[in-house]
Design brief:
Length: 329
Amino acid sequence: MNLENVNKLLIVRLSSFGDILLTTPLIRSVKNSYPDLKIDFALREEYRDLLKFNPYLNELHLYSGKYKSNPLLLQKLNENEYDLVIDLQNNLRSRQLLRGFRKSKILFNKRNLDKFLLVHFKINRLKDATSIPERYAQTLLDLELDNKGLDLFTKNETSHLLLNKNNLIGLCPGSKHFTKMWPAEYFIELGNLLQQNGYKIAVFGGKDDKQMCEYINSNLNDSINLCNDNDILQTAADIKICKAIYCNDSGLMHAASAVGVPVISIFGSTVKEFGFSPYNCKNLILENNSLSCRPCTHIGRANCPKKHFNCMKQISPRTAFDSLNLILS
């Protein structure tokens, strides 16, 4: 779609962490192609910091979680007189939010049928699918993305705990779902291998990761626990000075990608065909391709349906350690 006659654009992606960061190549490319276009963005209030300092955006509209608690939000959006709305969420909440919206709308094709076929019948129609940022851009048919990666703008200074720390490797052990988390004991064994080879360790996470990060940190010698209460801008500023990051398929994987740090991602129940792998950055994905049960979900599960969890357990700490030379070379 040609945006020549569009003066005000609203992008809607309410959640989650990684999905919102994956919209930033679209935001940047639209603004660079149409400098006079004003771009607003609607997202859940807990993810505000992800776009707080994004220079390509005009205004953020914060969604508090339940539409009934946002009685004036739709009215405000209508009063802004947007020429076009791009709904990248395309679910019940976003459709409910935009119900009655009077201007043109474009809905993101989530390819739900293809994900269902891959998860439940292992029919892979996503084999040649592009990444999520590229699929977001395809909502505007004539838009070409640049060759840059994700954006995460932070004005935070590096934590004083990391001052004068060289050869720093970050461990990000958390994720929203159990089946997307490499075992904590494996992160500990990996951390010991890294320390034995002269690397310093920093452990990163958010509010829900505190217990696990503390457990890993307490079982490593002289590591630094930088887990916090979801201060993503501080976390991103600290991740930025690491030589590399080990992480799961998680929001911090995309945060590390956005600040330009080499990423080693460990994929368990999900697969890169879903489009959420690290985007346009130096990265390696470690995954067990010998299992016929993968993927068992496209978002993550609370437990392994086969009870063995071999998608994660068969990726050894030694394999993860050896991959570091590959990504740093």
